[in-house]
Amino acid sequence: MQRAWLVSRVPVVLLVAVCVSLAAGETPEPRKKLVELGWDIPSTRYLRDNWQTMEQGAPFDGVIFMVRVQGANSEAFWDNKPWKKEWLEEALGDLKACRFSRFTDNFVRVNVTPGSLDWFSDADWAVLAEKTRLVAWLAREGGCKGICLDPESYGSRQFRYDPEKKRSFTEGSAMASKRGAQFAQALAGEFPKATVLSLWLNSILLRAGELDDPRAALEADAYGLLPAFIDGMLSAAPPEMTLVDGCENAYRFDGETAYLEAYNRMRSHTGPAMRLVAPENRARYRAQVQAGFGFYLDCYLNLEGNPWYIGAKSGSRLERLQQNLAAARNVTDQYVWVYGEQCCWWQLSRPSDWFKNAVKNTPGKGRLWEEAMPGIARAIRRAGDLTAAVRAELAERKAQGGLKNLVENPGFEEGDGPLPKGFSAWQADDSKGTFSADRATGHNSRASAKAVNVKNGCFIQKHNVKAGETYAVEADCLRKGAGTCSMRVRWQKANGQWTLEEKDKAVAFVPADGTWEHAFGVVTVPEGAEILVILLCVVNQSSNDDACWFDDVGLYGL
């Protein structure tokens, strides 16, 4: 039984702010994407044969894949060996045979490997430009979002300045800029709206960008010519092309602060990443470069003592994975690429000789990720789109008969007084409306909670909770005449004192079932909170003809 809720203890100013802020509306955030990359990288043929199973079983918005057909390998792309368009017809047929619905953001992986091009050879770069044009054509015609550029030096160090070439660093940088423009022009010629998801851009060189003069650091760095190459890309990329700095350095980030700090360093107008961009290209950088993050699953599977290890802080390591991935997703402009080495997502890729050889010295590895870390798919789904994931989980639990609603009197059928049992009400001093139980109108029954002529007020119910617990909340609403309705979750200490206002959760009502609207949200109890308070708010009613009804309130532990 819930303890009685004392209206007199509610700070009026806070509740006024709660209801009015919801009435003003909130701008929805852009949709963020989690994209998979791993040692189990699929080929186009594998996609063709398994795309339905992949979409059903993997918790991602897209996949990074390779092109490996006779004569062409996108993972050994960066050389002066020409391709023929007809070689890619097989790969295009594979992609067109897929009918992806969940995997909306797929990318062709293009490696800067073997990295053997001479910066000063027009012939070398003409070949690469033509290959780039072909892979852009394949990506566009195959319904992909763009290309995934992996600039890591698996072969020769393409982006290292080599003084033995008898060229100055200034000359090398100028030529790298020219080649970056050539690369972007080739992409744009076939796919001007392409997204280039690079595993890193200037984020690999942030320390150099923090120096008063980055030149000395760049001259000695393995990727010292990369900023110039990026400059060239920016100078030639059409406005509709997007470049993503995937920040592979985020692998060991632990906590939202780390992601926020890295984001600031990549995106700040005066930050180290921007200082590596030529002044004439900085406006383009601000407009066309996104900050993204790499997320390394192996950190949550490796044993303690491994340099790539992240342990649990409270709860399990899987919960820590979900928290950190959610932080990456919340901070990124759009993309987080989720990377794994020891295990795999795709069942049929496990027998691969290459993969088995790669993990042969790591006992127990090479399994499916769900076998190695049971629940990982659910954790990633929650981190990627918490609301959608929880909706699906609750629907499954309801179908199995295991869904318990923690709200007292959720359908408002109980109680003999003017208010429904288990609920109290509050309204501002200048609001003279009425709150009552309506036993003739309801959504799924003939009962509801009704508010009439309320300028600013709410129905209220509270629940004892513990920090770290996660809950889904929902309610239905029907409106007549003027007024705006909303639902909000707020927090109290055990003594009823309001706390952590910045952690309030606003949940909007949206059209759902005829004239009724539905609100659904997910909240995690913050540290320092001991009571979860559900507020069913109404504002801006101005006469007795203005009314709203609330029904079917739900609170479910996850």
Structure, explained:
By secondary structure, the protein is α/β, with parallel strands linked by helices. It has helices at residues 12-24, 44-57, 89-97, 122-141, 169-190, 206-209, 215-220, 226-236, 256-267, 272-275, 282-288, 317-331, 353-358, 369-372, 376-384, 386-399; strands spanning 33-38, 62-65, 68-69, 72-73, 107-111, 146-150, 195-198, 242-245, 289-291, 293-296, 335-340, 424-427, 434-438, 448-452, 456-464, 470-480, 484-492, 498-499, 505-507, 510-513, 516-524, 531-539, 547-557. Helix 2 (44-57) runs parallel beside helix 3, helix 4 (122-141) runs parallel beside helix 5 (169-190) and helix 15 packs across helix 16. The chain is elongated and about 90 Å long. Mean pLDDT is 91; it is low at 1-27.
Strand and helix layout:
Elements: H1 12-24, E1 33-38, H2 44-57, E2 62-65, E3 68-69, E4 72-73, H3 89-97, E5 107-111, H4 122-141, E6 146-150, H5 169-190, E7 195-198, H6 206-209, H7 215-220, H8 226-236, E8 242-245, H9 256-267, H10 272-275, H11 282-288, E9 289-291, E10 293-296, H12 317-331, E11 335-340, H13 353-358, H14 369-372, H15 376-384, H16 386-399, E12 424-427, E13 434-438, E14 448-452, E15 456-464, E16 470-480, E17 484-492, E18 498-499, E19 505-507, E20 510-513, E21 516-524, E22 531-539, E23 547-557
Parallel strand pairs: 1-2, 1-11, 2-5, 5-6, 6-7, 7-8, 8-9, 10-11
Antiparallel strand pairs: 3-4, 12-15, 13-14, 14-23, 15-22, 16-21, 16-23, 17-18, 17-19, 17-22, 20-21
Helix pairs in contact: 2-3, 4-5, 5-8, 9-12, 12-15, 15-16
